[in-house]
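Quick one - inputs below.
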Amino acid sequence: MDFKDYYKILGVATDADLKTIKTAYRRLARKYHPDVSTEHDAEKQFKDVAEAYEVLSDDKKRAEYDQLRQYGRAGQSFEPPPGWQGAAGSGNNQYSNADFSDFFENIFGAGRFRQSAGRGASGFESSEDFTSSRGRDIEVELPLFLEDTLSDKARSIEYNLPHYSDTGRLPDIRKTLKVKIPAGVTDGERIRLKGQGGPGFGNGPAGDLYLRIRLVPHPLFDVAGSDLTITVPLTPWEAALGAKLNVPTLSGRISLTVAPNSQTGQRLRIKGRGLRTRTGQGDLFAVLKVVMPQKSDSDANRLWQELADKAAFNPRTDWEA
Amino acid sequence: MHSEYTTSLTLVDACHTIGLESQEVFEIIEYGIITPDGESPDDWRFDVRMISTAKRALRLQRDLHLEWSAVALVIELLDEREQLRAENAMLSRRLERFLHGN
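Output:
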């Protein structure tokens, strides 16, 4: 495993006092916390920062780490000296999603997985009480097509489930689960599957599985809440004279009547052809867009010129003095 | 089929799921971070969105060393930011599609 230079991660000197370390941590935590950060590798960075703080803010852990440091270098492969026993332990760890690196686990972690991560399900004050705690919650993204949300859907999902034995963590199990997705789910919505998350410790219950719905962008429709928008290209003569069009919707084609003298940008509401909601159905908006032919022949140009001569219309009256 | 997705939780279940004691859940409700349905704690029902928000609040409080009052504001701003971003992205996409086709 790679050696981790916690001082470097926090950007502090090796003789930094606790106050300095705290300040460094707070600044970096704000920068990289996944709930808040816009940095692209925020989660990984935050994990490193949190782990570094976990060690350097604790006297015992820091002392042990300082001892070990002489044997390792950042970025290089590292093995603790033979017979190394992490006496400080990782008890009383503060982090909400304690998921430390191999490096940390190897130094501080023997038997750690048995300890509750922070305050556990049954509300213990101290994480020294490691007889039982609730397993970890897992979140999995579930992409759906817009069409899928129109009715209840059965889906098979796969995810990695953490796996533990009495002595430590084993490789994850790949778990498959059949779920029923109700109609009318929205983008970003979470569905909770009780007890399908990480296994509990001791007698603790398993965590939950959360499915986070992600609606896949549609080639034709734009989504705004429960409404959909589709751009309807029209020829100039269709806009001028009106037309009857066959417009695609999520559930088949419908007939749309465009009135004479329609404008680009005009929105025509097609009721009930949007996305399904828990209570009903949104609408589809057809946005008209007049499109010119790319090429023209002399016959067409003659007709255009006739129109230009006969039709008295100035679209730029606003520009006159 | 594992379709036992629960739509709302009682206070006891919510505490377990979020990882807070009831006293702390009372606190985050007091700060307006979440607002469960129901008149009294026994009637309170927490939906999945509230659970997610509460978990996020706990992460912010612990990891960023914030007071609940600050957490409440942060979450409000984060929600607003997310909404604005989504709206922005949607309008950009729509405009792009409108002007230049698919």
